[in-house]
Amino acid sequence: MKRERLHFQPSPKGNPVKASLLVVAFLCMSAWASAQVADYAFSQSNGTYAAITGATVFSSGWDDNVATYNIPSGTFTFNGTAYNYVKVNSNGYVTFGTTTSSTTSYTPISSTTGYAGAISAFGIDLDDGTSSSLVATQSGGEVIIQWINARRRNGDALNWQIRLNQTTGSINIIYGSCTATNSTSYTSQVGLRGSSNSDFNNRASTTNWSATTAGSSNSSTVTSKNTIMPASGLTYTWLPPKDIGPTALVLPTAAACFTNAEPVSVTIKNFGNTSLNFTTSPVTVSANVTGAATALLSGTINTGTLAAGNTVNVPMSANLDMSAGGVYNFALSTNMSGDTDPGNDNASDSRTSAAPTGVTATSSVATVCAGSTVNLFSSGNSTFTESVISQNFNGTSTPAGWNKVNSSTGGTTANADWTLRSDGYTYSTTTFHSNDNSRFYMSNSDAQGSRGTTNASLTSPVFSLVGMTAASLTFTTITETTMERKAGTFKYPPTEVHGPRYRVTRAQRAQLSLLHRRPSP
């Protein structure tokens, strides 16, 4: 068994550090991607087909052909990755990524070819007629690819567009006039495919393009013949997954003298891969308060947009009475229609209001005349605990301020880097779970390969410990292939524990570093 050393190496000074860090080092991991086209939301509508003029991708003679259309400006995000080009296959579909589809591939969704994704409007063996062409353009924030008078067999005149919205990431397939004279039934693949054919979101029907159902397999098809064709204006729409969740309690601040009317505000983050429009997808944020007071506060954001990976603060509609001493527990949550990942819809935090003890008051004078004033002087003691840094790694990217460095050598060094994984991640025949069934960080020296040296670190932002009398760090780690789970607590002044070490320096500034090192065998 390969063995490794895993330790924190912080340098704090005098402030309570309560870091909820789930950091996991395994010898068995592999790549994982959160984006899935299976999570895209499908809808259907009837509209008007508006033909476009644009740059010619193929003119006549384009039977079995592939060409690249470079997007004039900006990118289109598909399945979590931004592309500045699409690859157009004359057989009714487009693909993404550097791998090109075969010119004679007529089943883009079930195909095992390793392109990064596909959008198929009429995936079948197509050719051109005397007035056929294929054009593309960018207009109003949309990338539009249009097939003109394509045909399955002689007598066909099939027209449609694939429209890619660069702002929302939505995909529209709009059918124009589609006519045929041949009464023979042919089947086409219609829908989306991800980076493999196990990730699909397609349509199926043998009788009616306006009454399709979700495909049961990646090879599901829609039938076409002279009496079964899509009506002009029929529109299929796929919307990318929406994912929003709370990340922090902004107000009240952690260190404050609380009043009977404290504003409460919560930070929420767009964990998805495309911008959110709150006008069409409003979000309600709730703060359920227990402990020293009981209250249910909420706030709604229903205007504006939030770019992928960005955050916004949402104020609650009412203030909170925090005049009583004690601990106030905040259970934070978000509610948005169509949120595809409820696993990050909840967070928690707390604030402590410590009432002064041993208070005494003295007067500036011994006697007070009626109608006059007197100054009173008081003193007392108050202590409270403050959380300086806390991170649960439940997001889909490296948290703000944290820094990853991978200095590993030999083998596939990228596999040794600290990588966010979802609970239930499987490598080989083993499935891994975090202590609270949420996301976690992993470093995989086994996947790096033999004769490699692992040296990867994950470091927190710098934080101050000035003026505090005690500090502690709590964490959970899982090490080696035995999946042995350990929970530990670090305290200031430092105490040596097995494995990780917690150090104090004179810098009065602290960082937490998770180091994964393994020498070459």
Major β-sheet profile: 8 strands, antiparallel
Radius of gyration: 30 Å
Number of helices: 1
Proportion of residues in helical segments: under 10%
Intertermini distance: 10 Å
> Which structural class matches the secondary elements?
mainly beta
Strand fraction equals 35-45%
The shape, in one word, is elongated
Averaged pLDDT, please?
81
Number of strands: 41
Q: Enumerate the spans where pLDDT stays under 50 for 5 or more consecutive residues.
A: 1-34, 480-509
What's the layout of helices and strands?
Blueprint: E1 5-8, E2 20-22, E3 41-46, E4 55-58, E5 66-70, E6 76-78, E7 81-83, E8 85-89, E9 93-96, E10 117-123, E11 127-139, E12 142-151, E13 157-165, E14 171-179, E15 186-193, E16 200-204, E17 213-214, E18 222-224, E19 234-239, E20 244-251, E21 265-270, E22 276-277, E23 283-291, E24 295-301, E25 305-306, E26 311-315, E27 326-335, E28 346-353, E29 357-363, E30 376-381, E31 403-406, E32 419-421, E33 425-427, E34 430-432, E35 440-442, H1 445-448, E36 454-459, E37 463-464, E38 471-479, E39 484-492, E40 509-510, E41 513-518
Parallel strand pairs: 2-38
Antiparallel strand pairs: 1-41, 3-19, 4-11, 5-8, 6-7, 8-9, 9-10, 10-15, 11-12, 12-13, 13-14, 14-19, 15-16, 15-18, 16-17, 20-21, 21-26, 22-25, 23-24, 23-27, 27-28, 29-30, 31-36, 32-35, 33-34, 36-41, 37-40, 38-39
